Amino acid sequence: MDARLTPAQAEALAHVRAVSGPPTGPPDAVVTINFHPDRIDAGGRTVIEGLLADGRFRSQFETGISNGGLTAHPGGDRDRWERRMFGGAYQRPGVTPADRPKYGALDLARHPAGAARRFGSAHLRLRPEVGARTTFTLGDSFHEPEAAGVFDAMTSVLAGLPDHLASAGPLDDYVEAQVHGPVDLAADVEALVLDDSFAGCLPAAETVATRYGVKLEWRPGSRLTPFDIPSDFRGPQMRPLAVRLCERYGRPFVDAELIGRAAREARTDPGTLQLLKYLWHTLAVHGVG
Predict the structure, then answer these.
(1) String of b and e for 178-198 (b: at least 16 CB within 10 Å)?
(2) Which one of 137-146, 152-161, 236-245 scores highest in mean pLDDT?
(3) Is the pLDDT at 74 greater than 80, yes or no?
(4) How far, in Å, CA of 44 to CA of 183, rounded?
């Protein structure tokens, strides 16, 4: 057991292990954590600047930002899900926001964009040993899935995986991972993988890699012209939104950096942020590398 685990984190792991079924052995896969590197956190920093300053990846309970729903607060939906998933371990007296799990996905396919690209263009690829303090659910916790397991005992998760992959949408075909304990860059992260649309735009990334000894990898990002955006995915507003953004910023296509730039400017406008999230989903599924 990792000595860095708090009592609440150890209790949460034990709760899931008790319902995981017989040992299966660890899967041939790693955990990735997707995120948007240029979004602004509650302290006014971009996520990549926060990684540089803190040396660790922080949960939604700490950052106050989300690439899904912002429900990480006492009494919110994520707090309720975690109570059910982990037997109330994180609702005990004295538990802090920093104690909460960090969410990623099991990268069974070794996807270049990470296992759960709906949550961001960048990802951290964690070291294999982090799996020992990670729990897994078949599908996103938003759907309150019943199948759960730990890294070496995933009977119900693996049994339901074929049906899940067959029925899931293109952004939902992942096994969610909940990492208990810290995600320290120096100790727990093998690589920081970034979309190449940010090349030259994230000076903190090079410093993160050097300071904490992680690999910095660039992957080909997706691009999509406004007129190639399908009208039947994420709604008819996507194409006119893309046209406006390309005209505003003088760009011929939408990419992750362009969406991020618009999101930073609209950070106090929830309606626009929601549309930009959907535009990212559209790019992630239909974009061309």
Answers:
(1) bbbbbbebebbbbbbbbbebb
(2) 236-245
(3) no
(4) 21
What backbone phi and psi angles, to 5 degrees, belong to 214?
-105, 155
pLDDT (mean) for 119-125: 97
Q: Rounded to an integer, what distance in angstroms lies between the CA atom of residue 43 and that of residue 112?
A: 30
What letter represents residue 151's amino acid? Answer: F
**CB of 120 within 8 A of CB of 37?**
yes
Q: What is the rounded CA–CA span in Å between residue 76 and residue 84?
A: 13
What residues have CB less than 8 Å from 258, skipping those under 6 apart? 197, 245, 246, 249, 251
**Beta-bridge partners for 106:** 31, 175
The alpha-helical segments, DSSP class H, found in the chain are 7-17, 47-54, 60-63, 77-85, 155-167, 185-188, 203-212, 238-249, 256-265, 270-286
Helix (H, G, I), strand (E, B) or coil at 34: strand
Pairing of strands 189-195, 215-219: parallel
* Mean pLDDT computed over 53-67: 82
Identify whether the C-beta of residue 168 lies closer than 8 Å to the C-beta of residue 160. no
